[in-house]
What we know:
Elements: E1 4-7, H1 13-24, E2 31-36, H2 39-49, E3 54-58, H3 64-78, E4 81-86, H4 98-120, E5 124-133, H5 156-172, H6 185-210, E6 213-217, H7 240-252, E7 263-265, E8 268-270
Parallel strand pairs: 1-2, 1-4, 2-3, 4-5, 5-6, 6-7
Antiparallel strand pairs: 7-8
Helix pairs in contact: 1-7, 3-4, 4-5, 4-6, 5-6
Amino acid sequence: MSRISVVTGANQGLGFALAEGLAHRAAPADVLYLTGRDAGRVADAAAAIGHDVVRPAVLDVADPHSVASFAEDLRERHGGVDVVLSNAAARLAPDVPWTEQVGPFVDTNNLGTSHVLRAFTPLLRPGGALLVVASSFGTLRHLPRHLHEHFAARSLDEVDATILAWRDAVLDGTASRRGWPDWINIPSKVGQVAAVRAVAGRRRDADTAAGTLIAAVCPGLVDTDASRPWFPDMSDASTPTEAAKPLLALALGARRPEHYGELVQFGRVLRWS
Length: 273
């Protein structure tokens, strides 16, 4: 059976490297959807890879209708999907107030993650993988203890509600008083991992029996346009191509039960709490 793959946020940086890596590992009958919000940019990225298996496609993860429609088209065309790499992310700028950035940041990074999980996990074929690109900041140890209970969610709806309440606290200026970290990337990443855990908790037995993997992944520091404004010394950073290799190995390689539903970096589970 042909391998059907989807990479979100794939027109540049790590997403492009993930799509390129999948294309180079593809069989002639495989299909890889290289997706992003801008039709011209995804077309250019697909052309840059130059492989027959790559199909550029417009997909805005912040728009639930866009995600649901794309997933339904995928189901009708292929019956299911084998690899989903959820990589789309909004950037943060150091010199712009959080109140101006937190809305679109949450829409893409958090609600976008939830949209992808809702739409694509039902399509995963046995043995498939859905990986959400997150960060080592996505563990409870980066939050004050009194906030941990907010992420003991058992459903995506509960995770979304927690994230939206935090977003509103940032917008109304009460987030710091409530103990939330000043850097909005931290609660966002914790929310992404919590979303993965909520979905995995409901599917664990069936998925592990079928060899299907749902997990969050941390690529480490990657030298991209998004990270350079925050890290003036990038000498220890990986290139996107280097960072993509362990993620692709996780998606395509042999399954390890301890990875299921967890945040994984370089093959090692980063403890949630």
